[in-house]
Every structure is written in C-alpha cells, then in structure tokens.
Amino acid sequence: MVYSDNGESGSRDNNRWNNYFDRDHIKKMISFHSLMQGNGMEVLAHNNCAILFRRNEDGVVGINKCGNTQLFTVNTNNRFKWFRNYRDLNSGNNEIFINSGSYTFSIPAREWKMWVAE
C-alpha cells in the first residue's frame, strides 16, 4: 500500500485521490515494491528527519521530510552488492557504487530515493 498526503490536487477531499495510482511518482514506488517483493527489510539509520532502510542486498530506500540534506554512513559488509551500480528509480541515475566497508548515503531535502541493484 502506498500513501501520500501532500495535497497536490488542492482541496482536502475534492477528488484528491482520483487517479492517484496513475501519477509518475506513485508508479515508481509501486515498481520498487514489486521488484523487492519477498525481500526482508532492515532499517539502517534514522533520525527526526529521515529514514534509510534496505531490502536485502537488492534495494535501498531513503526518505527525507526535512529542509536539509541528510547523510547516513552505514556498514556495507554483508549488506550490499559490492562493485555494482545501484540506480535510483526516482531520478533514473546510477548514484551508488559500493566498494568498501562503509558508504555515506545522501538524501536531499524533501526527497525520496529508491535505489535498485543492477
């Protein structure tokens, strides 16, 4: 289930959810969910602004609700695929390449990232 309450369509209840499933960002989130179906989840880091979690070695999600970039440095040993690109489904870019025992994830202000191992 995907939930978003940012009021993009204006009034509180006047067709706000009408065809919401067909919006680009919701399609991307559903795609990530489908790709990760059956994978375990582990919260890697969190604070009052953001959360970072992984879906086995196959995917990583970062959500930042605050107005400044959030950085989380995590242990990558036995948690990620090394020497592989992780592509962000939100932007389409290959933004992560893990090749050491730690990696610093950057989640921009008021953004979300869903990285998928290629």
Average of per-residue pLDDT values: 84
Q: Compute the separation of the termini in Å.
A: 25 Å
What proportion of the residues form beta strands (DSSP E)?
35-45%
Q: Based on Cα principal axes, name the global outline.
A: globular
Label the structural class: mainly beta
Uncertain regions spanning at least 5 consecutive residues: none
**Oligomer description:** single chain
Largest sheet: 6 strands, antiparallel
Computed Rg: 15 Å
Helical content stands at 10-25%
Note the run of SSEs as H and E.
Answer: HEEEEEEEE
Number of DSSP helical runs: 1
Number of strands: 8
- Lateral arrangement of strands in the main beta sheet: 1-2-3-8-5-6
Please provide a written account of the structure:
With about 120 residues, this protein is mostly beta strands. The chain is about 10% helix and about 35% strand. The strands form 2 sheets. Strands 1-2-3-8-5-6 form a 6-stranded antiparallel β-sheet, covered by helices on one side. Strands 4-7 form a two-stranded antiparallel ribbon. The longest helix is centred in the N-terminal third of the chain and has 12 residues, at about 25-35. The chain is globular. The two termini are about 25 Å apart. About 20% of the residues are buried.
